[in-house]
Design a protein that fits this description.
Length: 262
């Protein structure tokens, strides 16, 4: 079903964000801004269907407000004004990519961007950034394949900036001075983080080592059995490596392939 609200309110921005990206030598983003939409993921899918992907320029849909944002396991959540809500499509290096490692690569690049501005965020495997014990940001990764080759990478990003947050969340306004908590500024930083992730993709071992250093906790409970496992590290396909005495196992959260579903 076509999101009529998204189609009505799409416009190509002509302002400071485009110029700020160019000033930083970015790879030429195509951007669309929405004042409100059901989901940036849906709006991006519509855009890709209307204008086929040519793998030349990364694209991103940014919204001030999402009514039914897509989260993990297809859950819906509110994304009120004041945060960075975006969905992007970008070229991704081939080789042997996995969606799990792709998601961690983006989370690592976002964490690095936050650290460069004085915010220390840990990675809660597989897709959240945490400050203390409170959620600051999340990512939703998807790799779209054609045969054995990656056609494009899709990533949804949500970052709390100065928006209201639910219990258990935290926003940058609680961590930084007001002048450094402008939404447009953090839209810029997140787009730059996606470009950085594209560069990091060529170095999976470096990504795994850096993500492992930033893991939020070193033990996890199995949601089915309640058993506690020690976290031993991260595998090269992004899985979480676990140990309990002499027993070992691994968790893989994201599926690896998506063909034709933009």
């Amino acid at each position: 079903m076509v999101d009529a609200t998204a189609l009505k309110e799409i416009r190509i921005p002509q302002g400071r964000l485009v110029h700020a990206l160019r000033d930083r030598g970015s790879s030429g983003w195509q951007l669309r801004h929405l004042s409100v939409c059901s989901s940036t993921e849906t709006a991006l899918t519509q855009w890709l269907r209307q204008q086929p992907w040519l793998a030349r320029q990364p694209r991103a849909v940014l919204a001030q407000h999402q009514r039914f944002a897509h989260g993990q396991y297809g859950r819906f959540w509110m994304a009120p004004p004041g945060g960075v809500w975006l969905s992007a499509a970008l070229p991704w290096p081939n080789g042997e990519p996995s969606t799990g490692l792709f998601g961690l690569t983006v989370a690592l690049a976002m964490a690095e961007q936050l650290e460069s501005h004085g915010v220390s965020a840990a990675i809660k495997w597989p897709n959240d950034l945490i400050v203390g014990s409170r959620k600051l940001a999340g990512v939703l990764p998807k790799l779209v394949f054609r045969g054995h080759h990656v056609r494009l990478a899709r990533i949804g990003v949500g970052l709390n900036v100065c928006n209201p947050v639910p219990q258990g969340g935290i926003a940058l306004r609680e961590l930084l001075p007001p002048g450094r908590c402008r939404v447009r500024l953090w839209q810029l930083h997140m787009l730059l983080a996606l470009e950085r992730a594209n560069q990091l993709a060529a170095h999976p071992q470096r990504v795994v080592a850096a993500a492992d250093q930033r893991l939020w906790c070193r033990s996890v409970a199995d949601p089915a059995s309640g058993e506690h496992w020690a976290v031993c590290g991260i595998g090269l396909d992004g899985q979480l490596l676990l140990r309990q005495g002499t027993r070992t196992t691994s968790w893989t959260r994201w599926g690896g392939r998506s063909d034709g579903n933009l």
